[in-house]
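Figure 6 in text form: structure in, sequence out.
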């Protein structure tokens, strides 16, 4: 006799993926704010001291891009781990109407957005 199906395991995995993606998005958003705060400081410095050179915006850009990289990496790892875990579940534990395409697609979309945002910030600082 086989063990009864327990959909709570699957739904817990879904909640965990969503929590990691939410955290990754927050870290990426914080990185963008840090990078753009350096631009704000640069513009403020130019208004107060028009002839002086200000290099602090590069530090905030590097920190911001690093935060975006960490958030993107977290989204990638969470998506891959979720994919691996759900693949290991017995078919009885996965709802019949559920498709892996949406959660995987959303996770990889977050990764693509993170890479694009980091590339934009990197090339806008050069």
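Output sequence:
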């Amino acid at each position: 006799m086989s063990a009864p199906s327990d959909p709570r395991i699957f739904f817990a995995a879904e909640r965990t993926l969503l929590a990691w993606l939410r955290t990754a998005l927050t870290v990426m958003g914080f990185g963008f704010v840090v990078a753009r705060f350096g631009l704000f400081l640069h513009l403020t410095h130019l208004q107060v001291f028009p002839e002086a050179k200000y290099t602090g915006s590069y530090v905030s850009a590097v920190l911001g891009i690093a935060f975006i990289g960490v958030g993107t990496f977290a989204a990638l790892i969470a998506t891959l781990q979720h994919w691996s875990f759900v693949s290991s579940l017995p078919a009885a534990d996965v709802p019949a109407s559920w498709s892996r395409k949406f959660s995987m697609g959303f996770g990889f979309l977050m990764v693509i957005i993170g890479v694009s945002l980091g590339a934009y910030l990197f090339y806008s600082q050069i």
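Caption detail: The mean pLDDT is 86.
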